[in-house]
Amino acid sequence: MSEPSPGERLAAALRRSPIYVDPSLAAALPRAERRGLIAKFGKAPAPIFVILVPLVAGGTWSDAKELATVVHDRLGRDGVFITFDDSTDELAAREWGGEHQARDAAWAVALDRAMDDASLADKLSRIIDLIVSGTGTREYKRVSAEIRARISRRPETRDSPAPDEDGGLALPLGAAGAAGAAAAGVAGLLLWRRRRMASAARRDVEGEGVLMPRTVFETASRANEDQLREQASREVIHFGELLDETSTPTNERAGTLMARALDAYQAAGKTLDAARGIPDLAGVLVLVDQGRDALASAQAVAKGKPEIPPMPLCFFNPLHGDATTKLDWRPLGSRERLRVEACRTCARATRNKQTPDVLTDTREGRPVPYYEADPKKSIWAETGYGQLREDLIHRVLRGDLNNPR
C-alpha cells in the first residue's frame, strides 16, 4: 500500500479533530486553547477546519490557497478552512458549500489595529465570532474605512519603510531615536495595511474572472517554448473575449482605464505575432496582465468602487508570477541602484547575495539575464518588462518591439 499524501494525512487528522497544528507550531496554540476554540465551532453556521502548517517556498506547502483546496478535496467535506496567509503569520479563510463571510472575517482581523498584539488563539476566536454573528463583511468594511481615513491624513512617502520579503516591516534603525522609530513604525504599519487592503481588493475581483489567474504562472514557469506560446495565445484570446463582453463605460476615468486595457490587448497580440522566443512570450503575459488589471479597474470605477491596485510580475522573471517585495537592486557592473519588485523567492536570493532564478535572453550568441541583453535590441531589457519604464504598452504599439528607441 502506498504512503498517504500530505493532503491525505491532513484530512485524516481533521477527521479526528477540526484543528490541526503542525508539531513545530504547537507552542503557538496550546491544547487547552484548541479545546476552547472547538467548543465555539458548534455555534458556527458551517463546519470549521483550522490547518496551521508552515507555508515555505520549496517546502511541502508554499501556497495557502493550494493547501486549503487540496485538504478540502481530500477531506470530502464542505465548510470554512482557515490557514496561515501564505508566508505571513496572519490568517486566511476560504469556504466551500456556502457563503458565511469567512474570508472577510479573516481579512478584518488581519487589518484591525486592535488585534496587532493578539495571540493566535485570540485571532482565531475573533474570526469565529465574526462568522457566527454573520458580521465579517461589516467589520471588514469598518476596519477598511478606518485605515483609509488614516492614510488620507498621512500620505505614503518615499522614505516610508516597506515590508520585507517575509511580509514583516523593514524599519530604519539608528540615529532617528525613539521618536523617529515610533513615527517610522506608524508609517510602516499604514503602508503595510494599505498593501494588505490592495491585496484584498484584488482578491475580491479574482472570482469575477477579470484578473489573470495566478495559476497561469504555475505552468508558464515550467513550460518549454512551444507550450508557452500556446499558453500565451490562449491568454490573449481569452482577454479579447473579456473585452468583447465589456460594455463601454461612460465614466471618464473608467473610459481611460478601458482604453489602456484595449491598448494592452493590441500590444499583446502584436508581441505574440512577432515573438521569437521565451523572452517575447513572457512579454505577452506581462502585457495581458497589465491589460486585465486595467480592465478590472475600469469595471470597478464604473460601479463607483476604488480602482484595483495593479500588481507587477517578478522583475527577475515574470514567469514567476506576482511581485510581492520591493527592493533596491544594483545590476552587476553598475553603480546605479534600481527600485524593482520581485517575487518572494527572488527577493530573498538577492538579499542573501545569491543569484535569483532569472529569465535569460541572448547577447552575442550567449545566454545572459534578460536585463543584460543589448537594450538597443530588447525592449524587455530597456523597460524591465515595464518596471523600469511606465510606457511599455505605448512602446510596443509604436513599433519598438525589436527596435527600442
UniProtKB/TrEMBL annotation:
<keyword id="KW-1133">Transmembrane helix</keyword>
<keyword id="KW-0812">Transmembrane</keyword>
<feature type="transmembrane region" description="Helical">
    <location>
        <begin position="169"/>
        <end position="192"/>
    </location>
</feature>
<protein>
    <submittedName>
        <fullName>Uncharacterized protein</fullName>
    </submittedName>
</protein>
<keyword id="KW-0472">Membrane</keyword>
